[in-house]
Structure formats: structure tokens, C-alpha cells
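Bumping with the actual sequence this time:
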Amino acid sequence: MSGRTTLTRKAAALALVLTGATALAACSSASGNEEAVRKDGTVDLSKVTLEVGDQKGGSQALLKAAGEIGRTPYKIDWKSFTSGPPLLEALNAGAIDLGGVGNTPPLFAAAAKSNLEVVSGATMGAKGDAIVVPKDSDVTSVADLKGKKVAVAEGSSANYNLLAQLTKAGLSYDDISVQNLQPADALAAFTAGHVDAWAIWDPYTSQAELEGKGRILVDGAGLVNGMTFQAANPDALDDKATAAAVEDYLGRIAKAQVWSNTHRDQWAKVWAEETGLSPKVTRRAVDRRVAKPVQIGPDVIGSEQKMADTFVANKLLPGKFDVADFFTDRFNSSVPNS
């Protein structure tokens, strides 16, 4: 089965999941913080609980490393997800107020008309977004991947990097055998020699290098935007108290991202503790990235629109849509350009 067929089916399946989740959201509240709004219209943040979706080694770990955990005037109820797509399904259903994802999951969710708004972003530089091959592989260029088995997590940031690299090399998804594998399964397949290449992101890129006997064939620097995002449920943002907590939270995330650039040892240590990865792996991943908070604006939206259009042109998403409908600059003041 070709990667194109698999991804088209995935998009259709995601649309069905999100349609069901929309029905669930209609029967439930995305926020339970209405009582935190005082009679005079001000907000008592001590009565707010922010439901935050996260991935292992993500926002919670970063805030912990930066010393921000426990310092917020509101409570954070963390909910863990294996990757961006299921996190956004929960967001669409109103099970969480916001959460952090990479640059591609919001596009798949938006194509399925999910209920989300991207409220802040940051670029990590894309050096950790890579295609890795075994050290002794005879593959020396992306063009050499023709006819090869390539592991990638569908709908992830690695998915777009793989597509962009193939396009640059004059290849398409039909020219390779796409193996849809989540990181843990892909690492096992890669180290066992069951796939010829692996499209992945850090810290898994570093893990493949240091523990999986891999080498980087090509990285995404200069080709993909390397963005990460915080996405929110618009219904939650309609609640004044929740929106106030979100604004504060986004500011703390942005500050912690900047902090990580100058406290690499501390960040790598906590990242290793939170994920169970080797400190050598997380330190290499940390050294490859420079976090820069970026305000939501034409450049960010234009870059994501280009990505969406590329997926559509390759029939990996069902039809063209306007990315700007799923982004907002409402919270730009809390995430200043660094």
C-alpha cells in the first residue's frame, strides 16, 4: 500500500473521529472556570483550573526545568498524550483547554474542521527534524531512497519534512514504501534493520544517532519552519477566566523557551528525567535547537499555508482550506518576539 493511500485514509478517519468529538463537545463545557469571574468582571485566578494537554518531555518538563511549576496563580491539570493528533482530538472534544503540538498536527485537524485555534508559536530551528539511515547504509542522498522502506509517524512534523525532502529531490511518496510507525516502534524497526530510513524529530533523532547506530542523511534546516505551537479550544477561550489563565500560561512558556537557550545543562537533565532518555541523548537534542518565541502573523500563517497546500497537492489531505481561519493573534502580547 502506498503512503499516499494510507495518509488519505488516515485523513478520512481523522475527520470521522473529530466529527464525533464535535458532537461530544456540543454536550459538554470546554471550561469550568466561570465561577472565577467576580461580580465586577475581574478574574480570581486562584479559582481557575487550566486543563493542559502535553507530550512526554514537553511543556510540563520545560516549565519544571525553568522553575515555573507550582508558581502559577491558577491550577494546571496536566493530561499526557503520545503525540499531537490525539491531543488535538481531545482539544476538539473540550477535554482540554490547550496543548502543545508540532507544525503539522494542526493542519490535519484543521482539514477535518476541528474546533481549535493556534494561539502561540516558537521555532526550534529544524536541525533536529531529520531523516536518518543506518551508519553502514549505501543511501547517501534523498534520491537514493527510491524504492526504500521509510518509517514516519503520519501527521507528524516528520511527515512534512519527509515530503519536502522528497519533493526537493524530485521524488514523491509513490517512489518510496512508507511505513506508518510511532517513534517507539520506528526505533525498534530501525535498529533491527526492518526499515531503510526513518523520518523523525529530536530527541529521537539524537537517540537514533547515539543508540540506534544511525547517521543523519539530511535535516530540515532551511527547508521546513521548525515550528511548535500551543493550540486552544475556542470555546474555552470564550470563558473570560480561562482566557486570562491561558494568556499568563503562554507568557511563561515563552520565557521558559528563551531560558532553555542559556541553561542547556539544566534543561537536558530534566528532559532526560521526564522521558527516561539518556542525558547524552537529550543534551545533543538541546544543543541542536535554539528556541525563539514567534508571534502569530502573516509569516507564520503563510508558512503553514504552504505546508497545507503541499499536503493537498500530494493528495495527503482531502482539499484546500484557509489556514488563517485556525490561527489567532489575540495573545501576541504575551508572547513577544525575542
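The C-alpha cells above came from a reply further down the thread. DSSP finds twelve helices and eleven strands in the chain.
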